[in-house]
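User: I'll paste a sequence; please echo it back and then give the predicted structure.

Assistant: Echoing your sequence first, then the prediction.
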Amino acid sequence: MEEARDFQMKENNKPLVSIIIPHYLGDILSECLAFVYARTSDVSFEVIVADDQPYPDGSLDRALEKFPDIRIVKTGGGHGKPSKGMGAGCNRGLEVAKGTYAMLLNSDVEVGEGWLPPLIDALKFDPEIGACQSRVRSLQNRKMFDYGGAAGGLMDKWGFTFCQGRIFEFVEEDVGQYNHSRDIFWAIGGAMFLRVDCLEKTGLIDEEFVMHMEEIDLSWRFHLAGYRIVYVPDSLVYHYGGFTLGAESYRKAYFNHRNQLVMLLKNFSFSRLLYKFPVRVAMELANLGLLLKGNWKHPVAAIAGLLWVLLHPFNILRRRREAQRFRSVGDGEIERRLFKGSVVYHYFIRGAKTVREIGA
């Protein structure tokens, strides 16, 4: 792996790309870095690791021994303090990044051969594109799309998120059905490539999300600022979904439900919220029916998330003002970038399982 460091920037030269990797625990970091250095060629880059360890487990020292060129930044959490989350790690990296572009990369991601140039080309040749996303497959089953990002994130008119390649719990096998680039609404935070100077018009990641939905919230602000986001199928990465927080965790479900509501309140215009938010709350409360089937995590998490929103109006108003100050496009343009139907209706009532079946 050491010879791959020849592609690293030379001292005092500005790298083209800053690769920012938040790190929690484990030697998964060294595994991620090994693939980054071995499979990133002909591109000047730097690697910034955001240290959010709750306690030193030696993994960061072992990574530095193998890859001494990496830069370490502290998140402000860890070492006896609560974790600040992915958003804080990415922000600390973005604040010191020297690259024209930044890649926000999870430590549980394995990058594929030639993964970076297609992303650079997507942004280089179209200044309207502020961010893009790789094709993301599952590291556990390499033929399947990843649950989190798949082939690009979409959103319906009620604020429900889904992906090309994954709608709710149905995940597709990648058989080439999404081999073409297209505009998407959001990019997965674990493989999000962005133009750094765009952040002056969008702001950084909202760290108060702690985890989950922060990249979708940032993507939304890219749209509010007039930028587009695209899916780049020629860039392939593999993601070990749920490595930091298990897929069945109640805490994960709570943050998902809470943060989705906060995100809608931050980014929809007030006129849209007047009718969209009550409908969305009703849909959230529909989760209560799962209690009858013995599935308590999602309905309880949905209620807990809604209660947090109701008890923190000033927190949400402050964050909403911050998000809305970046708006430069009207409601009509944002609505055109959303799926005009209801993904909940198509999936649960019509039985449609793919983006093509619902017409998104």
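The chain has 13 helices and 13 strands. The chain has a mean pLDDT of 90.
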